[in-house]
Structures are given as structure tokens and as C-alpha cells.
Amino acid sequence: MKVKASIKRIENDLQNLRQFGKTEQNGVTRLPFTAEDKAARDYLTQAMQAAGMQVHVDGASNVVGHLEGAKPELPILMIGSHYDTVINGGAYDGILGVVCALEAVRALQECGIKPQRSVDIIAFNDEEGTRFHRGFSGSLAMIGQLTEADLNNDKDRNGISQAELMLQHGFDPHQITSAKRQAEELFAYLELHIEQGPVLAQLGLDIGVVTAIVGTTRYFVEITGQADHAGTTPMTMRKDALAAAAAVIAKVPAYAGLADPNGVATVGFMKVEPCAVNVVPAKVTFSLDIRSQKAEAVPVVAARILQDVKQVCGDELSYQVTMAMSEEPVAMDAGLQDVIEQAAKENGYTARRMVSGAGHDAQIVARICPVAMIFVPSQGGRSHCAVEYTSPEAIAKGAQVLLDTVIQLTK
Ligand code: GLV
Ligand code: MN
Ligand code: MN
Q1: Cα(253) to centroid of ligand 2, in Å?
Q2: 374 Cα to the center of ligand 2, angstroms
Q3: Mutation choice for ligand 1 from 360, 378, 388, CB with most ligand atoms inside 8 A
């Protein structure tokens, strides 16, 4: 008998979870260590328990459910994604992979199928890096590569460190290493996710089998000039940090493809100080996010932009550049890609191999075990915004492929 994933249960979870951080624009803002993220964590804990799993929240605030297999000595199959969002993001990015993982376990339980190897669900926190800018802190902690010093160093826009916020929310930063899982424990990690781009929707395809995740390097550039009166200071006497930043930023789109035609570069964050209508800007801090599937392309683009920063600042302004993160492109496991593609085929779904332009926890987990990803289409290719949408029909297909892949890997 075919074990079927229930789209009804998935949609119910999605509808419930989108309430935690719902915005006026019908988007979701669920940043780490807020009341909304606690509510989502509690919901997921209860849902995993109701699915018959042993559940704990680890030292990094990831929710982890364990379904014991018939042979618990075998390495575990881990499935999941993240439960945080960007600011006014969508109701699918991350959380869909968690909910589909939950549904896979529920479907197995409903049919009385006991997997041979144990299955863990993981709902990572802080994949986006929206609050502390590092990103992937939940998965980095899970592989043992997030230190207490990182938690002290990483601050939100109010200058509050992640460590301080963790303490306020009942997590002990000294215990961050308790989230670590050993490589030997894990057989593989699977993550279902919305594509977040236009490829599948434009081609009318059901499933994306991810071959690799692009490399990303993220900087913060701080340009310092001088605050002066906006009415009395002649244009020749100004040290306008924002005018300098604007001159640099205007050229970023043109440089993105310097070493890879598919390369992308984004300035998405900016802080202007003192940020007043009648004061020449004294200081500007902006982010620079550069991505490419070619490892060698990102440094080329970065060097060109940072050369412009130097030139534009000249002797009049000063600048400082800090690298916030740098991840090389990561390949997905070839064998797992085949299993996913086969599952899609057996269901009569159309599938295509593709590169992910978005970052995912899978690229971090890949450092300790084989990983693979299943993409479902994003309507209009829209994501990281309130209108993000994937239809129940499209989700049902992805959930079924995930479930069938889990069955295949645990028998
Ligand atoms: C996460 O969604 C990222 O790609 O930045
Ligand atoms: Mn995501
Ligand atoms: Mn995202």
C-alpha cells in the first residue's frame, strides 16, 4: 500500500505557524529570541510529540524530534529545515521543510511503518541571519562550529549580543556546545525547501533536485565622514559618508557578473548616522552579499567593489570592511540526488536538477554528513517577501517525494 503524505495536515500546520509573527502585509517576521519564535518552537515541540517522537530543544534553540528505528545502532536519517524568517518574509521559507518532515513521520506512523534506522526531525533556528547577520547559527551549533565567543560577538541592530538574548530566553550560551551532533551519528540530512527563484515555476516543473548551493560572502562596509550643517556647509567642504556609499553601491549591480554571468550581489542593509534631514551624514554602514556557484568568482567581485570603496573615500573619508561570513559553494550528495529523482519519477512528477541560489542549512550540515535538497516551485519566483506562495498541489508533490525518499533511505 502506498504511504501518502497528507496535504491537509501540512496546510493546517502552515496556517497555524504563520500566525507566529504575522505582519500587517500578511507576511511573517519571526526573528530568533522573540516571543514569536518561542511560540513556533512550542508549537513544533508539541506537533513532534503528537507524532510520537521524543523531542528536545537543544542548546542553540533548535527543536529536535527523534523517532527510534528498528535498528537504533544505525546512523540516523535527519530531515528538516529552519523556522526563523527574514523581516516581513513569507510563510513557506524554511518552515515548509520542517512541516513536510513532520508529515513524513506522521505518515509513517499512521501506516504503522517502523523505519530501520532512526529518523530525526530538526527545526533549525536563525538560518537567515537577519538579526545577528552571521546566519546558520542553529546548524553551525549542531555541527559544533559555533562558539560562545561567536555568541558574544554577534550583536543585533540594538547592540544586544546573541548571548545576552539567549540568556533572556532561557538558553545558556556556555552550553552552546551541547547542541553538537557527532558525524558518526548521522547517515544523511534531507531538506525540502521552496525554490525561492523563478526556474521551476517558469518551466512548469514539479520538483527541483538540488545539485549544489552557491557560495556566499557577506561584508559590512563602514564609511566615516563628518557631520555638518546641511544648509551652511559648502559642497566643497563636505565629508558626506552617504554620498560616498551611494557612489559605491550604484556600481554593485554592474560588478555582480564580472567572473560569472550568473553571479549576484546585493546591498540590503544600510545604517545612516546620525540620520537626520538637515545633517550631512557622518557615517554609513552597509552590507554587501555576493554569491556565485563558482568559488573563484566571489573574491573577484568583492575585490572590485572594495577597490571602489578605497577610491571613493580617498583621503577625505575613512572606511572599515568586516567580513561577516564566507561560505564556499557546496555540492549535494550524488547518490541522494538519484534517490530523490527516482522518487519524483515513480510518482509521475516532472523534475530537474538545479543549483540553489539561496543559502540553506544543508550547506552547513554537509560538513559532517551527506546532504540533499528537494525544491518545490515558488509562485512568480518570489521569496523573502510577504507574497511568497507555493500552492497546496505543488507542496503535496514535494512532501510525497520527501516521504518516499525517507522510506527508501530507512528500509
Ligand atoms: C537565506 O535565505 C539566504 O540565502 O540568504
Ligand atoms: Mn530558507
Ligand atoms: Mn530565507
Answers
A1: 23
A2: 12
A3: 360
User: Three cell numbers at 372?
Assistant: 540533499
Tally helices (H) and strands (E) across the chain: 13, 14
Model pLDDT for residues 192-213, shown as the tens digit of each residue: 999 999 999 999 999 999 999 9
359 lines ligand 1 (CB under 6 A): yes
- Nearest bound ligand to the CA of residue 194: 2
**What SS3 state is found at 46?**
helix
Q: Cα of 289 to ligand 1 centre, how many Å?
A: 10
Residue-wise pLDDT for 382-398, tens only, equals 999 999 999 999 999 99
Q: Is 128 in the pocket of ligand 1 (CB under 6 A)?
A: yes
pLDDT at 40 over 90: yes
Q: To which residue does cell 528537494 refer?
A: 374
In this predicted structure, what is the pLDDT of residue 282? 98
Rounded-to-integer distance, Cα 410 and Cα 115, Å = 5
Whole-angstrom CA distances from 345 to 3, 124, 337 are 16, 30, 12
Model pLDDT, residue 1? 83
CA of 277 to the centre of ligand 2 (A): 37
How far is the C-alpha of 136 from the C-alpha of 126, rounded, in Å? Answer: 6
For residue 268, the SS3 value is coil
| Cα–Cα distance, 193 to 375 (Å, whole number) | 5
If DSSP codes are grouped into helix, strand and coil, which group holds residue 289?
strand
Give the three cell numbers for residue 279: 545633517
How many other C-beta atoms can be found within 10 angstroms of the C-beta atom of residue 69? 17
DSSP E strands in 58-162: the ranges are: 63-67, 76-82, 119-124
Is residue 276 very low, low, confident or very high in pLDDT (cuts 50, 70, 90)? very high
- The whole-model pTM stands at 0.94
In one-letter notation, the amino acid at residue 290 is I
